[in-house]
Amino acid sequence: MPPINDTFQEDPRNNSHQLSFFLVLDGYEGPIDLLLELARDQKIDLAEIAILPLAEQYLAYISRAEELDIDIAADYLVMAAWLAYLKSRLLLPEPEPDEALETLDMAEALKQQLLRLEAMRKASQDLMALPRLGRARFRSGTNWHPDRQIRIAHQASLYDLLEAYGQIAGRQDAEVLTITPSHLYSIEEAVARLSSLIKDNKGWNNLLSFLPPNLQSAFDYRSALAAHFSASLEMVRDGQAHLRQDQQFGDIYLTASEQKQP
Amino acid sequence: MSADINHYCRIIEALLFASPESMSARAIRKYLPDDADDALYDAVMAALGARYGAESGLELCQMDGHWAFRTRPDIAEHLEALRETEKPLSRAGLETLAIIAYHQPVTRAEIEEIRGVTISKGTLDILLEMGWIRPKGRKRSPGRPVTWGTSHEFLDHFGLENITDLPGLDELKRSGLLRQGAVISDFLRPADADGDEEDADGEEDGDDHD
Amino acid sequence: MSADINHYCRIIEALLFASPESMSARAIRKYLPDDADDALYDAVMAALGARYGAESGLELCQMDGHWAFRTRPDIAEHLEALRETEKPLSRAGLETLAIIAYHQPVTRAEIEEIRGVTISKGTLDILLEMGWIRPKGRKRSPGRPVTWGTSHEFLDHFGLENITDLPGLDELKRSGLLRQGAVISDFLRPADADGDEEDADGEEDGDDHD
To answer: A29 to chain B, minimum CA–CA distance in Å?
Structure first.
């Protein structure tokens, strides 16, 4: 891996150029916004915009970004692919009348989308220019009914309600993700436990006597028993211990392996 | 009334309306021209006082040189009975209400299971008193517990036309209202919820809410 | 004006004068006699509106059935001292608000379609927190996505009586830009052309009751 500031030393101008370019791309609210900006450079009246040069401008913009090895968000690339396709259809004569119509529809859809976003952008400015509450119109400054409170009206907005539900759902989610308490006794734990216990307890001992104390529930007990039984089998296989059962379903006895059978 | 007096009268009217506190004469005069004499000030306040005469529900009062609009005493009695102070709904109240809205019909025990804590008696009482919830019937399970749902007032208050307008979890998540990371595919929908057979939304159990 | 109308007019005047928030018609009618008909209510509100004509610094505003006194915009320049500082909405927030206002009821997917980008978390959240938007129902399309519209608080904030008073609405309608037309993505992914990619979240709260 080359030292990080190599590129810096080689071509600092290029680097700062990349940065400004990246910021420019980053300043757009998506590909339609970028197209709108390019279209504005071309024409004041968007309704008369020429689609082919617009598509070419956009593609040039994106390919420049690619040359500079800039990360380009996926939606910009999808739009680029779409425009490249549109461009090829606009340039090549369509063999079928139906397809020629579709090409026109595509160009029209793009134009409409630009006009639509432009209209909403203007609408948002118009909205903000209205005599807004707290800016050009004011509400009553006081709620002066004083003193005695006859009735308490509880207040909550829809936002409060949705936010509360989101919190509950989120909390529930957190529990599911984080709290996974397992009372299951693992075989590894049981092997470790038994190995140390049988060294201290010479002779044959009932396997049950090796179970840990304070097993709260039947479930815990079964889990510990199963783990210890499996562990004892494993220890026999490894030559660490011997097992003995005198009759069917009878108690199982365990002893360390250096202990010779009588 | 001269145009000038009317002009300032309107401004002072709006000002006193929008100010949380009463206003001193000095503060009011800042809204008159710098060279205004006492005569203009007096004329404006007199005109405003006249505008809020006995035919109005309000009067312009001066107390210690401070001006404010006050409700006329003779209609105070009509307002008194309905005097309310507003207080935000508690967290427990909000959560309980949200669970009822989303999971209705739902029993108290189910609400507690979802919230993970018991509901104090007062919580449902407050929601009932606000008229936002109502008993919906009884669940066919041991003890036949009352189930709860939301009322028309609930829809009114929260500006919803229909209870199904409430955005789903996925929508909440995308709106940033569900702040945890992973998607919950089936959030705590009690396994048997679809199979719950409610008694008809009967009147006979309307009094029993605990 | 009949004595009765004048009497209730004074009460409602005092009530609205003191209330920073708008009051719903339902809340106002609580102050009329229980057996009052629409005619009395209409007459009272008309009389009150007439009392606060252009010669007043205040106006009686009606927003989608909610009433409030607000200072008149033509004296706004004189009341600059009252201006609240506000946290400006982001461009994404502004555009989303405009789209919801002009296209309502509109789904999230439709908003994204118009803007050409996905709505980041927090955008709808903020509009909802401002109280300006509310869910309006569900669209009859796969997944039954929630649709959004504006609230009476929106009208109040922007000084509109009705949603049809939105600036430039008629012109936009004439130009066809508010219609759901062909969009680029129709040609991108013909398979799911209607653009509604909501998960099926309509089910988890979809209990139809009432």
So the answer is: 18
B23-59 pLDDT tens trace: 999 999 999 998 888 899 999 999 999 999 999 999 9
> Whole-angstrom Cα distance, residue C52 to residue C111?
40
Distance from CA of B146 to the nearest CA of C (A): 16
Residue with tokens 């936009």: C172
Q: At what angle do helices A12-26 and A51-67 cross, to 10 degrees?
A: 130
Q: Report residue A80 CA to chain centroid gap.
A: 26
DSSP A162: H
- What are the backbone dihedrals phi and psi of residue B198, each rounded to the nearest 5 degrees, phi first? -85, 145
Residue for token pair 């207080």: B87
Residues B71, C134: C-beta atoms closer than 8 Å = no
Report which residue type is found at A164: A
For C76-110, write each residue's pLDDT tens digit. 999 988 888 888 888 899 999 999 999 999 999 99
Distance from C202 to chain B by nearest Cα, in Å? 6
What ipTM was assigned to the predicted interfaces of this complex? 0.72
Q: Which ranges of chain C does DSSP label H, i.e. alpha helix?
A: 3-18, 25-29, 38-51, 91-103, 108-115, 123-129, 152-158, 169-175, 184-188
Would you tell me how many other CB atoms lie within 10 Å of the CB of residue A128?
15
Kindly list the structural domains of chain C, giving each domain's residue range(s) and its CATH number in brackets, ordered by start.
3-76 (1.10.10.10), 91-199 (1.10.10.10)
Instruction: For C190-206, give the secondary structure using H, E and C.
Output: HHHCCCCCCCCCCCCCC
Rounded to whole angstroms, how far apart are CA atoms C166 and C101?
8
Are the Cβ atoms of B177 and A162 closer than 8 angstroms? yes
**B71 interfacial to chain A (CB closer than 8 Å):** yes
- 3-class DSSP state of B88: strand
Nearest-Cα residue of chain A relative to residue B160: A158
Instruction: Name every residue whose Cβ is closer than 8 Å to that of residue B180 and which is 6 or more positions away in sequence.
Output: A169, A170, A171, A173, A174, A177
pTM of full prediction above 0.80 = no
- Other C-beta atoms within 10 Å of C173: how many? 13
Beta pairing class for C58-63 and C66-71: antiparallel
Flag whether residue B75 sits within 8 Å of chain A, measured between CB atoms: no
